[in-house]
Amino acid sequence: MTMSWELEAEASAGRGVTARRYRLANGLGLISAIDRRAPIVALQTWYRVGSRHERPGATGMAHLFEHLMFGQTERLPPGEFDRLVERTGGESNAATWVDWTYYRLSLPARDLPLGIQLEAERMQHLVLEPTPVEAERDVVTNERRERVEDDVDGWLDEQLMAHAFTLHPYRWPTIGWMEDIRALALPDMRSFYRTWYAPNNATIVCVGDFDDAELRELIEKHYGHIPSAQLPEQERIIEPEQTRERIVRAPKPIATDRLLVGYKAPGQDDADWAPLEIVATMLAGCPSARLYRRLVIDREAASSVDAQLTPFRDPSLLRLAVTTARGHNADEILQTIDREIAGLIEQPPTASEVEKAKAIAETDFWTSLVDVDGKAEALGHYETALGDFRKLSVLAERLAQVTTEDVARVVRTYLTSNRRTIVIAEPEADGEEDTDDE
To answer: Residue 107: left if φ>0, alpha if ψ -120 to 50, beta else—which one?
Structure first.
């Protein structure tokens, strides 16, 4: 057993599974959780860098690296990374969001050494030259065109964040603004890579069928010599309190209105996050949920209703998304939303309604941890975004403890019109122009 690792913490990660966090001298974190129900492993590398770590004028860098990291390294020719993973029968993927970027491998247990070797290689030896960089830049600009500029839902999402936040970096899109993506310079990319893709800014998460001591020996062999980086000081940016409703409307090539409403909400580590998650479930978490039942089933005024509380590190949004049915419009939907929220304040929900919502939310929470990939993703998210994987169990406890009084209180506190931003896409008509009302 290697003696270079420091065991920092351990906690349950589901029934019969214990997660342990270790750290190497160069700052690399490791969370390991043995789950022998199948001879497979989830190997994920989480970097504490997302779109919030960018600066105005250079947005989209973190997401561009999600693409670049599958390219050529000093020892692997272009395409070889994916070929080696596919040869094992495994899968590779990646994701970027506001608070993090992570890379995931799902592999047969016997191929864990290969996965560790590949991830260590691209942490330190990525080739950043004009030809591969420009190829991936083209991929990303096309992705932005398809997912945002030619997609109404993508436009709604981007506009909501851009208008709900005036100072915090959550205001720009993870994919970046098009003019920024096109202008990102190669020297800046190399600097970004040297700064953020370092062991002291990363956590490796391994869940599945492996030997813990052998895992640490393999990781130390491939990562132990990589030097840590000087990480920039992160200024804590506090979004100013919103005191007025913000509304954005624009004509789009659609048949009926679509609207996205965002109420300012706390970050995921806040004690109020759990009761707000229950509120989101009560509003649109199932066919009998209040808004869904009223808009889709009873009145047939909407074809879809969805509610989401974004799991960000810093305060974010509880979002309501509605697509109206023919013959109905966004203003009518907003009136219904206001009535339902007022009803929750005037007549607090019954204990049985809250318990049903809790059952749904808790089931969704635990279902996400069923397989090794889901466990690894949850452990990586809580460690990277919130600073400690053990907060995973804290959230589970908070969901279980939500009361009717908690629900009534958070509705009164957060779901007020002066704390919300509304983005509406309306069917196009000749002569219409975008409007932005504050």
So the answer is: beta
Q: In whole angstroms, how far apart are CA 285 and each of 130, 150, 279, 330?
A: 47, 28, 9, 21
Tell whether pTM > 0.85. yes
How do residues 197-256 score in pLDDT, each as one tens digit? 999 999 999 999 999 999 999 999 999 999 999 999 988 899 999 999 999 999 999 999
Name beta bridge partners: 23. 6, 29
Q: Catalytic residue positions?
A: 66
State residue 426 phi and psi, 5-degree precision: -115, 150
Pairing of strands 258-265, 435-437: unpaired
pLDDT, tens only, 381-434? 999 999 999 999 999 999 999 999 999 999 999 999 999 999 999 999 864 444
Locate 396 and state its tokens.
């589970």
**Which residues have C-beta within 8 Å of that of residue 346, sequence separation ≥ 6?**
none
Question: What is the dihedral angle through the alpha carbons of 391, 395, 401, 405, rounded to the nearest 10 degrees?
Answer: 120
Annotate the chain with three-state secondary structure: CCCCCEEEEEEECCCCCEEEEEECCCCCEEEEEECCCCCEEEEEEEECCCHHHCCCCCCCHHHHHHHHCCCCECCCCCCHHHHHHHHCCCEEEEEECCCCEEEEEEEEHHHHHHHHHHHHHHHHCECCCHHHHHHHHHHHHHHHHHHHHCCHHHHHHHHHHHHHCCCCHHHCCCCCCHHHHHHCCHHHHHHHHHHHCCHHHEEEEEEECCCHHHHHHHHHHHHCCCCCCCCCCCCCCCCCCCCCCEEEEEEECCCCCEEEEEEEECCCCCCCHHHHHHHHHHHHCCCCCHHHHHHHHHCCCEEEEEEEECCCCCCEEEEEEEEECCCCCHHHHHHHHHHHHHHHHHCCCCHHHHHHHHHHHHHHHHHCCCCHHHHHHHHHHHHHHHCCCCHHHHHHHHHHHCCHHHHHHHHHHHCCHHHEEEEEEEECCCCCCCEEEC
Domains of the chain: 6-223 (3.30.830.10), 246-437 (3.30.830.10)
Give the span between the Cα atoms of 47 and 314, in whole angstroms: 17
User: What is d(CA 288, CA 292) in angstroms, rounded to the nearest whole number?
Assistant: 7
The number of beta carbons lying within 10 Å of the beta carbon of residue 198 is: 22
State the number of CA atoms in the 13 A half-sphere of 395 facing the CB: 27
Across the chain, which distance is largest between two alpha carbons, in Å?
Answer: 73
